[in-house]
Amino acid sequence: MKLTPKLIISLVITFFLSGGLAYAIVPTGGGALISPKTEITTEKKSAGFSQFAAEPKTEACPLNGKLYSKSEKTLWEARRPILTMLENHVEARPQSGLSYADIVYEAVAEGGITRFMGVFYCGAQGDNAKVGPVRSARIYFVNIAAEYNTPVYMHVGGGNCSAEQPGGPCTSNKKAQALEELAKLGWRKAGGNDFDTISDIGYPVLFRDYNRLGVDKVLATEHTMVGSLPSAWKEALKRGYAGTDEKGKTWISGVKLWKIGSENLKGKSAQNISYEFWKGYKDFTVDWKYDPATKEYLRSQGGAIQVELETTKQITTSNVIVQFAKEEGPLDVHKHMFYTVTGDGTGIFFSNGQAIDIKWKKAKQTDRTIFTDMTGKEISFTPGAIWISILPIGNKVEYN
Questions:
Q1: pLDDT band with cut points at 50, 70 and 90 for residue 48
Q2: Cβ atoms < 10 Å from Cβ of 292
Q3: Does the pLDDT at position 263 exceed 80?
Q4: Which of 65, 93, 161, 251 could form a disulfide linkage to 80, CB 3.0–4.6 angstroms apart?
């Protein structure tokens, strides 16, 4: 065969393409399929929702009442929510996905560093919706996730027995063993709804993007895991986790939905809100500022506005709940924490520039957390995103 210049170029291109494809599917630890650094390119121009921009917003999300298009409703009704663990280390900011989560929970993971669990359903039906950086599970987040009737739970590892040798004694406190709790729930099994990179999920659902914050930003590996929501929903459908089960029963029929209303709260003025998770940990101090024009609260953390990575727009929400919970820890050498999110307690509800004291109750793990005013009447959320910050009992919340 004569090696003409054209043929040489063709062979070189074929070599690199085939080599790259083979490398992209090599297993890397724990059975997970993770792509290499060069596999992913970061696109920051769009969050992938442009296909719905021209459609009227007429359909209310059952989780928070926000309006979306009929096309988006058709998509979410065929699926169930993805609850994703997202880290909040200063070096991991800004995150991807927080702006289109229907509900976001925030609590300390360890060492005063908070972590998010986003509930992605109605607001995340974009063709390129991604979340990140994805991090490990904590048992109190698992206890909240159990409210959502077997959702897809996405994370990277989590608190577990951590025996130094197989069969040896655990180095983690039993209260911190999230992976074992996922197994008890029946989620952590082959082909299950527990989407964990150290189990049986990898690329294209979860992958590492070392350039997620830009090619000039050097990231530690733990800040690089990204999740593709479209790929996750596709995999969930393959596994039988759709909007309805084999008997035609919808997943949402097993969830007590919160009340949604448009009435204004009659409480104290709350145009500005500020609180710490741990005293003195200023990088995680949260500030919310109310915008009367949009009727939303604008989020800042650590003294800087908190933005969505792909759009650079500030994170906003229509509702803020501060939920006070009993804090325990560090529990063990791994500095695991524990927050009691079953039982009952108190909190503060902020919406429409007003604040009221509230109570919360969650009788058992799979029950929905219900928020009421101090007389016992269930509160109504303003249509829009809901943020829930879980703070230790006794923490001070300032607002005016």
A1: low
A2: 9
A3: no
A4: 251
